[in-house]
Each structure stands twice: as C-alpha cells, then as structure tokens.
Design a protein that fits this description.
Elements lengths: L2 H14 L8 E3 L7 E6 L2 E7 L12 H14 L14 H13 L4 E5 L2 H15 L4 E5 L4 H10 L2 E5 L4 H9 L7 E6 L1 E2 L4 E2 L2 H10 L2 E6 L14 H4 L8 E5 L9 E5 L1 H10 L1 H4 L6 H15 L2 H20 L11 E5 L3 H15 L1 E2 L2 E2 L10 E5 L6 H17 L15
Parallel strand pairs: 3-14, 5-6, 5-7, 7-10, 10-11
Antiparallel strand pairs: 1-2, 2-3, 4-12, 8-9, 11-12, 13-16, 15-16
Bound molecules: pyridoxal-5'-phosphate.
Length: 411
C-alpha cells in the first residue's frame, strides 16, 4: 500500500468538500480578555474571542489561578500515575466529593476529559450489560456515539428530541432486555434543551436507565449552577450524569456522577478510567476552587444570559438567521461549509473577531454555522462591534438575511 498517497488523497478530498480544519493560534493574556493575541509567525495582533467554552472565565479567575499555582508548587506538576498506581491524591478525592455534591449524587469519578468519561462509561455499560438496548438522540455528541458504537451494543437512534419516536422505539424493543437512554440536557451546537421531564417519564415506564450529558449546562443553569437536571428537579431520576471541568469551570478533565454502586462499577471496569494517568493535582485543586466560585456566581450567570439575549436581539435587528433559544449558545446559520469558513476568515482577518466555523462532523452536512459564545466579560461595546462586523461580512458576501434561508429548528 502507498500510505502517503492514502493520507494525501483523503486530505485533498476533505479540502475539496470544504471540511479541512485550520487552527488559528490565539493566546489569551488574563489582563486583556475578551481581547486576545493572534500569533502569526513573528507577528502578533489583537483579536476578540467569540467562541470560547470558558463560559465564565474561570480559567483566568485570580483565586483559581492562585490555587492551581499554590498546589503546583507544593505537589509538582504530574499526578504520578493512574488512579490505581500512585495517581490518587487528596485533591482528586476532594474534587470527586465536590462534584457528587453538585449533582446531588452519592459519588463521582474523574476522567481525563468528558470525552473519555462518556466514551469509556458507555463502552463499559454496552459491553458488560448483556443484551443492553441503547437509545441515543441523533444529535448526541461524538463522545457518546463513539462509546456506544465501540461497545457493539444494540443501538436505536431517535430523532432529535422526539419523544414520540423514542417511545415507539422503546415499545418495539424486547421488554425483558435492559435499556439505557442517552441524551444531553442542552445540545451544544444548537443551544436547544432536551425534553428531559418526558424522557425521564419514558425511562420509568419502560424500566430504562438514563445517561445525561450536562457538559454545557453545568455552572450555568439551576440553583448554584448545578445544571438542568437539578433545575428541573429530576436529578434523582437520572442514573448517570456526565460533566466537564473544561467549560464553565474553565479547567480540564471530565467526570460522571451517580450512586455508589454505579461509580464503583465504572471505577472497577472502565478501561478509560483504569489505564490512564490521572489529572494533575494542581488541575484538580483549581477545579475545586472554580466549583466553589461558580456555585456562588449568580451575578456571572445573570450577566452571561443577559449578554446572550442582547446578541439575539441585535441579530434579529439585522435579520441574520440564528437558532432562537434562551440559552447562552448562539448558532448563526450559514448552511454551507465554504461560506461558513469564508465568514469566519473575513471576521477575523478584516475585523479581528474570532469565531471558528463549525462544520461536519461536528454538525450534520448542510447545517454549517458560527457558534457564538459570549462571557460575562464581554461588554456592550464588544457586542456591538461583533454584530457590526458580522453585518458587514454578511453584506460583503451577499448572504441571505432571515426568512430567505432554511432555518433548522426542531422545537
Ligand atoms: C456535549 C459534549 N459532551 C462532551 C464533550 C467533551 O468534553 P471535554 O472537552 O471535557 O472532553 C463535549 C465537548 O465539547 C461536548 O460538547
């Protein structure tokens, strides 16, 4: 086999479809945010960040940074091994206790990322529970899909947020088989919530377990930022909650929270937990501090939602198509990979506005978009500049305004 030809042909194909990814180098000095430095070789220039998942700026919060540095200086940088072999510190266990409390669960388990937590937990359940039937929302995150697929468990994909379809699939499945419904509380690329109450009802009716990805809602919704399951008072009806330390908490790492026996089971059987080095103690310490701060940060939560609402109003005023939700995520629809890239490039090159294009496989083909994320640190003048820039780019590229393009909203 000509390996080199294979790789190059595949990459060329990707480029022709407009699906090749280009990374921009963005350094975010603490003092400047939401302004940041774009590095281009020897050159450096100011840009404004409009696509960060560090939703509440916890990665730069002075107390979080101090806690991280303090622990780093005391303990050193690495954790020393897997959790089983010298990689469990008091920082890890304290963080797990804190995460369990966030979700009103008995216990929690940290992974290297939420991706690994999803993939490895679902793989383990799908592989080990005989005849497990998994029901998965069609827009579930890649990490959920990978875990389910790799497990080779029988998987039924229900249409996005369509509880009638879910029930139809549940009804038509062997009632004696164990079942697991896998979904997200807030879909990250739409900002649309799932019908969590109804799904939980169906789970009870058909005796299914529930697995909920709360990656984009933890820190931002519910009392003390405990997430949407707590906000909707169904946390006790969800068997496993997945979350990340990397978005509203601004660090890195992921976790699941559940009852003692599920956590003990996953801890004992999930390869993605067992066979990898644990997160650095300094990161665990920083994450614990971020959780404390976020739990008291109602003002930050109010501000991010106010900012998102202002952006939606301004987008409305210039008739730019977006998915209308009341979440903190704003998806501006372009529905073409080449144009999507073009908009993103013109925004940063002509206006210093950094918003990466989102295309397949992150979203389905034909539903390309800019996913705009705002933080409490974005001021009114930042928002107005971003909107003005987007308006100009939209006109420069003669893109269709609202009501003249297909808008993908299912609920
Ligand atoms: C819905 C969802 N789940 C899981 C993840 C993985 O999170 P992490 O970055 O911690 O691996 C992401 C990442 O963006 C996500 O959007």
């Amino acid at each position: 086999m000509d390996y080199s030809k294979f790789f190059n042909t595949e990459l060329e194909k990707l480029k022709k479809e407009g699906l090749y990814r280009n990374f921009r180098e963005i350094d975010r000095p603490i003092k400047k945010f939401p302004k940041a430095d774009e590095i281009q070789g020897e050159e450096e220039r100011d840009v404004e960040v409009w696509c960060s998942n560090d939703y509440l700026n916890m990665s730069q919060h002075p107390e979080v940074v101090n806690e991280t540095v303090k622990t780093l200086l005391e303990i050193g940088s690495g954790s020393g091994g897997t959790r089983n072999i010298s990689g469990t510190s008091s920082y890890h266990t304290a963080l797990e206790r804190k995460l369990a409390a966030v979700h009103n669960k008995e216990n929690a388990l940290i992974f290297a990322s939420a991706y690994t937590a999803n993939q490895s937990t679902l793989w383990t359940l799908g592989k080990k529970i005989k005849n497990l039937e998994i029901f998965s929302d069609e827009l579930n995150h890649a990490s959920l899909i990978q875990g389910i697929k790799n497990s080779s468990a029988n998987c039924h994909i229900f249409q996005h947020n369509d509880v009638d379809h879910l029930e139809q699939l549940l009804r038509n499945t062997d009632q004696d088989h164990p079942k697991l419904i896998v979904f997200e509380s807030l879909y990250s690329m739409e900002g649309i919530r799932s019908p969590i109450l109804k799904i939980v009802e169906l789970a009870k009716k058909y005796n299914a377990m529930t697995y909920l990805d709360e990656v984009h809602s933890v820190g931002l919704y519910g009392d003390k930022g405990k997430g949407i399951a707590v906000e909707m008072k169904v946390d006790q009806k969800i068997d496993i909650i997945n979350g990340t330390l990397a978005k509203a908490y601004g660090q890195m790492g992921g976790y699941i929270a559940a009852n003692n026996e599920i956590i003990d089971y996953i801890r004992s059987f999930a390869p993605g937990f067992i066979f990898t080095t644990s997160i650095c103690p300094s990161i665990a310490a920083g994450a614990s501090k971020a959780i404390d701060i976020v739990s008291l940060a109602d003002q930050l939560r109010i501000k991010i939602h106010e900012n998102a609402s202002t952006i939606r109003q301004l987008l409305e005023s210039i008739a730019i198509p977006y998915i209308d939700t009341n979440s903190h995520i704003i998806s501006v629809l372009i529905n073409d990979p080449f144009l999507c890239k073009k908009v993103s490039e013109k925004l940063i090159d002509d206006h210093g506005i950094y918003a990466q294009p989102i295309f397949y496989p992150t979203v389905p083909k034909g539903l390309e978009r800019l996913r705009i994320t705002v933080t409490p640190k974005h001021r009114k003048d930042h928002i107005e500049k971003m909107i003005k820039s987007l308006d100009k780019v939209w006109s420069d590229l003669s893109l269709p305004r609202k009501n003249s393009t297909k808008i993908y909203i299912k609920n």
